[in-house]
Amino acid sequence: MHIAMIGTGYVGLVSGACFAEFGSSVTCVDMDQGKIERILQGHMPIYEPGLEDLVARGVQSGRLRFTTDIKSAVATADAVFLAVGTPSRRGDGHADLRFVEAATVDVAQALRGYTVIVTKSTVPVGTGRRVAQRIRDTNPEADFDVASNPEFLREGSAIGDFMRPDRVVIGCETPRAESVLRELYRPLFLSETPMVITSLETAELTKYAANAFLATKITFINEVADLCEKLGANVQDVARGMGLDGRIGKKFLHAGPGYGGSCFPKDTLALARTAQDVGSPVRLVETVVQINDRRKGAMAGRIMNACGGNVRGKTIAVLGVAFKPNTDDMRDAPSLSIIPALQDAGAHVKAFDPAAMHEAGPLLPGVEWCDEPYAAAQGAHAVALITEWNEFRGLDLERMGGLMADRVFVDLRNVYRPEVVRAQGFRYESIGRP
């Protein structure tokens, strides 16, 4: 099978490299020649564990290629995946489809023989049909089908998610298109991966519904955490008691500073806007968006309160700025709300993140970036743990406390047991725990 992957961002690069690992011949297309050259030199545009080695194996095998020439890539492809960005449109929250539309026209002009055009990007319901119409308008002679194959990759574990997915969702309308996509995913048959074959609209909505539900689950436990603090309960115990119910499950029941990243913020907002437009508003999702936005902003207040209500002239050490561990993604990261609020209140912020500092630097001016956590703690009046990287789970608290001007530890991810931190002389604050 020959695949053209349009876009070498998070979805395109991971998917292309994984398809090549499965044995397909993959050509990844990007208009940025410099980006392609950096990838071929082993410099990945994103931080994703294992991706550099996977790309190197694919290139060495000859099954993974990179080019700026979309015509040559599409002309020989059995399937063309559209994996370009769909950010929130400025002003109204709808998904911005400019990149999808531009890629569709380029692909349409390059089609030679029967090809399945697959939307891999997260796109609003109805996009597949608009893509099909745009192709027909651009190239009336084209022999093609359009399919939807939404991705369900978690940043930080994307390769494993692709190789061992919970399910593969395919929206298509012809047996011919279904046959092509089944063949592409045939390597997963051994693991008996469930395949959901459905309509274009259903596949497109499935992705939004899944992300909105997970965002709702996170927001629910965050609200419960706030209630726990008022009632003297422990949110971790509540979450465990809930999660052991098979109907609920334990995943995504971890209280914290709110969700961020490339998917949940824009997808919940896009779903809410789409639902409003068709007269069937999803009030629950709208509320989730509002609560999450407020929560991220409120986290700075927790840090200030732990410091006695005033951080002017004080130094705050921040551990972790990426929206989650094992990624350098800063999109809608809670740190982007927390750190500026601390700075506006007069604090000096020192910070360390194992992977995201190069991305965070331009977004967080005035931060003093450090090369390890203890350097950030040096002279600090408080440490705030925002992203739960593994290397922050076993900090030498005695050493850290000895470096600090005041022993205050604000754990926004509930990584530590309160009694352990307090035994080292810290004033310790966490989320939803006594």
Task: Write a brief caption for the model.
The protein has 17 helices and 14 strands.
Give an overview of the whole structure.
The structure is a single chain. Helix 1 links the parallel strand 1 and strand 2. Helix content is 43%, strand content 14%. Helix 1 crosses helix 3 and helix 9 crosses helix 11. It is globular and about 75 Å long. The chain has 434 residues and is of the alpha/beta class. Strands 3-2-1-4-5-6 form a six-stranded parallel β-sheet, sandwiched between helices. The mean pLDDT is 96. It contains 17 helices and 14 strands.
Shape: globular
Mean residue pLDDT: 96
Q: Sketch the major β-sheet.
A: 6 strands, parallel
What's the N-to-C terminus distance? 57 Å
Query: Beta-strand percentage?
Result: 5-15%
Strand order of the largest sheet: 3-2-1-4-5-6
Structural class: alpha/beta
> What Rg, in angstroms, do the CA atoms define?
23 Å
Stretches with pLDDT under 50, minimum 5 residues: none
Discrete helix count: 17
Helix content: 40-55%
* Strand count: 14
Topology record:
Layout: E1 2-6, H1 10-21, E2 25-29, H2 33-40, H3 51-61, E3 64-67, H4 70-75, E4 79-82, H5 98-110, E5 115-119, H6 127-138, E6 144-148, H7 158-163, E7 168-171, H8 175-184, E8 195-198, H9 200-231, H10 235-243, H11 264-277, H12 283-306, E9 315-319, H13 335-344, E10 348-352, H14 357-360, E11 368-369, H15 373-377, E12 382-385, H16 397-403, E13 408-411, H17 418-422, E14 427-429
Parallel strand pairs: 1-2, 1-4, 2-3, 4-5, 5-6, 7-8, 9-10, 9-12, 10-11, 12-13, 13-14
Helix pairs in contact: 1-3, 5-6, 9-11, 9-12, 11-12, 12-13
